[in-house]
């Protein structure tokens, strides 16, 4: 097999070459962890569906009305001709196609990885009212307009109304902290206590998922924000420590964004 760079399709932010999406971060981490050559091509939010259809990428899900829903990440592998959408399917593809690289989904853990992700999402769902309005502000104008319009249509309210305020602010943020505390408790069961990763000493896709969400929060809230600094203190700094452990797999900033 030749060694042409895999193309990772990602969503840009106002900061050129800086990734922010939690889902594309899973794939970015995975490519770097495996040591696979890749390059990023950036696709604005309103262009994603048409672009995916153009290159032959499959939708990641079906809407309630039966229409296809296209999202990123998508990778295009010129070494095999494959075009894969959805971060979990991409991880499966990379493990199968490049078996001599570290496994993202260790043998026998596929169901566990999916189950853990679902449980994690449920436990930390209180984060959404904070991060979704915050993310809108870091997007480039075309994507920001699309993001705000479509999310407000789905939620049935303005994003400014979604973000907790007044007397609701502190209880809502405490709910987020408690949710992450629940995850921390799972990871501190006796047989895993003191271990750095979800699977103990073994790095896996589940850790990339958590670290990707931490990148989402760091970018969305801002590194100097009170919210991000607060998150870094939670559960004895577990989440910041995870990001630090995976820093070598973040990869260099991609500076090929074209206005």
From TrEMBL:
Gene3D superfamilies in the record: 1.20.1050.10, Glutaredoxin
GST N-terminal domain ranges (all copies): 11-102
Pfam families from the UniProt entry: GST_C_7, GST_N_2
GO molecular function, one term: maleylacetoacetate isomerase activity
Highest taxon of source: Eukaryota
PROSITE patterns hit by this protein: GST_NTER
PANTHER family tied to this protein: MALEYLACETOACETATE ISOMERASE
Protein name: GST N-terminal domain-containing protein
Organism: Favolaschia claudopus
